[in-house]
Amino acid sequence: MRHCSDCGKSFTGIHHLKYHERIHTGERPYYCGQCGNSFTCQGHLQRHKRIHTGEKPYNCSQCGNSFTRQSALRQHQRIHTGERPYHCGQCEKSFTYQSHLRQHERRHIGEKPYHCGQCEKSFTCRSTLLRHKHTHTGVRPYHCGQCEKSFTRQSHLQRHQGIHTGVKPYHCSQCEKGFRDQSALYSHQQSHTGLKPYICRQCGRSYTHSSSLRTHKCSNVKPSALDM
What we know:
- The protein is an alpha+beta fold.
- The chain has helices at residues 14-25, 42-53, 70-81, 98-109, 126-137, 154-165, 182-193, 210-219, 223-227, and strands spanning 2-3, 10-11, 30-31, 38-39, 58-59, 66-67, 86-87, 94-95, 114-115, 122-123, 142-143, 150-151, 170-171, 178-179, 198-199, 206-207.
- The protein contains nine helices and 16 strands.
């Protein structure tokens, strides 16, 4: 066994030890000839180069999407299987990606670290801030190639394109129903589990879908409140 003199970690081979020591030294000897980014190991450089070449060697057998990394493919496949391994410790919600769990947890503590420079709004995640900025600029960067519609979000474009293609790549593992987008699949799966994560704070009633909760809230607005 070989040991790191900086932190004491042990490694079976000198190659693994040298690779680890670069964490402490900051050495990044592998450079990209196209953009100048550098990396601690050759494998990371090769993976990075796929950004420039567009190579996506890992393909999903269920929907045809392709990815630059095998780990990204494995995460994507959870959309089809319905696996949501990351669970919130404060409520019953679970998530496909760990990053989505972290974003969700900020809602419990009220943390919104991403601030808009044009208004006073703040957000729990950076992607939501970027989408929000489109409301100021009017930019709709995602265009449908089959009609003239454009969208502020790529996910909205992908969902819209299903109207043209008829493709429903997200399938329920319990009844085999197909859906155009992941959120619709997730909402449907709750009909099997009986989970009702959307709770009215005023009366305690719970609902399977957020839209049902909104309808409930509207039906319970008092006339006097509407006149205010």
